[in-house]
Amino acid sequence: MKSVKLPVSGPHGEAGIRLGRRAFGKTLLASALCSALPAWAKRDDTLFTFESVPLSAQADSVVLPKGYRWRVMAAWGDALDGSGQRVPTDASHSAAAQGACFGMHHDGCALFTDPGVRDAGLWVTNHEYTDDGLLHASGMANWSAEKVAKSQAAHGVSVAHVQRQADGGWGLVAGPLARRITAQTPCAVSGPAAGHDLLRTAADPDGRSILGTFANCAMGVTPWGTYLTCEENFDRYFVKKGSVTAAEARIGLDDKGGGYRWHEFDERFNADRHPNEFNRFGWVVEIDPRDPSSAPIKRTAMGRFKHESATVKLARDGRVVVYMGDDQKGEYIYKFVSNARFDPSRHDRSNGGALLDDGTLYVARFPNEGNWYGSGNWLPLIWGHGPLTPANGFADQASVLVNARRAADLVGATPMDRPEWIAAHPANGEVYVSLTNNSERGKKFPLDGANPRSSNAFGHILRMREDSNDAAASAFRWQVFAFAGDPQAVKSEHRGDIQGDWFGSPDGLWFDPRGILWTQTDVSTDKLGKPPYERMTNNAMFAANTETGEFRRFLIGPRGCEITGVAISPDHRALFINIQHPGETAGERNDPARPQAVSTWPDAALGRPRSASIVIWREDGQPVGV
Ligand code: FEO
Ligand code: CA
Ligand code: CA
Ligand code: CA
């Protein structure tokens, strides 16, 4: 499909904004010509019908529309088996105890159900990082090997059995497949970088067995029934006091790390002594939730960067396509396209993942930089092609994948405002990307300032459509679906152009099977309630109709939390989300002497705020949202 330029009636061009959104795709030019404006201002209840939660409802609780209920399903420290047991309220439990229950700071998640089963499934959730001020009774004082082990045990992924309860909510139940995967769980390695020199260490001279996964942010689900967990801010766990190479610096290694202090008692994280250990993280990791004896597999063909999400689609010919963001200021959007085609009669959980080992990694370029709609293309990161040669330090495809950011730099990828989640529409082929925000206003990125109403303090949501509506296409068209912002902001660039309820810092982004685009915010704790976010003190979740452009506030979270992760039951009567880091302080780590200083969510009696997976349902038992 050729790119069609939209008529824009000036920098704020209302006609341009409206037509651009409504008419994206084939009807674009026709709509532009007949100027049939959609009724943006009118509420449209065709996709969802709930009453918007007012901004004034911000509280230290989960606030939902009238007629909705919620309950904690799986909180940090809860036993995996639904026995109701949990770690003590003062967090005096051991590392071993932590490794046997739900971890901390829940993020991406998914519900796996069997065909025909509506009321039970496997709940899989990431545990992205820890607040060591809350994790240990005495916080980070008297730092020890035991505290490092406990922090590592609170990271990773949980798998647990869940079931619908009599009242319509869901809860944990005992089952044989429950397990924890932590920063100490042995993982396999596959794809072009498996066994490569760059991945070999003294403890693993073959470069094919890596201890653990951590910094697990968002995720993906494969058509063959496995879970993809994404290693994001892994660099913050390593410390290197000596000189850092250009390749190490490009992905964030420095002499400080993120304050996790693992390197003090676990030598792997001392990058002076074990530089290759750093190369063994930053991957997409495949987990088979139905086989507790299976090792997670680091799939290296999808590249190494700060992986946010891994959204899987099938190309027209059945090849597997995985869309991925690299969440850092000025980083890129990637996709992987497999060489072989997915065949449900041939590929199951035991071998489907091999499709992810053989294919091409691409990075996105937006040539119409400085505009806010246009065309773009996918640049392949293939060793020997263009600048990806030994002359530039690339010895082979494995070195391209380990250093994917630098390879993307050299081929001319377009830097973005922190790509977070990527959502694929269930029916029309569109792909949406949340670009959460970017504090580096002075360092202008190409899509910033394209519209005077945009502000990278609030972020935006991008909409892409692949050529021929084929996920494997080498070119696409794009536009900004929504510039986030507060319409009452003092500065015009902070106002955005959201139709309906406003927000900032979009992060979690996911289509349910009905086509509702669920959007979750992650305004950082040091910005909540302060200009230009003075009217937003709590993070929230919205439903969006991508036909009309309307966003409607569905949920407000408790104090100091981020809303992230979303899944729905097969009958749409239960929605699951994660409340991450309730009670977080601006410094990211709580004072262990005052763990409830910011929040007591979900229950003051639990001694400290706890990240949790919650279930949301309607009192009348009808589908959520409509
Ligand atoms: Fe883990 Fe970019 O959020
Ligand atoms: Ca995120
Ligand atoms: Ca975020
Ligand atoms: Ca966050």
Explain what you see.
This protein has 626 residues and is mostly beta strands. It has one domain (15-232, 282-618): TolB, C-terminal domain (Neuraminidase, 6 Propeller). The protein is built from eight helices and 31 strands. It has helices at residues 14-22, 28-34, 95-98, 132-135, 145-154, 246-250, 397-402, 404-411, and strands at 68-75, 106-112, 120-127, 156-164, 170-173, 179-181, 186-190, 209-211, 216-221, 227-231, 284-287, 297-299, 307-314, 319-326, 329-331, 333-341, 359-365, 373-380, 416-417, 419-424, 430-435, 460-466, 475-483, 499-500, 506-511, 517-521, 540-544, 550-556, 562-568, 575-580, 612-618. It has a nine-stranded antiparallel sheet, with no helix packed on it. It has a six-stranded mixed sheet with strand order 8-7-12-11-10-9, with no helix packed on it. The longest helix has 10 residues, at 145-154. The protein is globular. The chain starts with 13 loop residues before the first helix and ends in an 8-residue tail after the last strand. 57% of the residues are buried. It binds MU-OXO-diiron and calcium ion (3 copies). The site of MU-OXO-diiron has 7 residues, from loops.
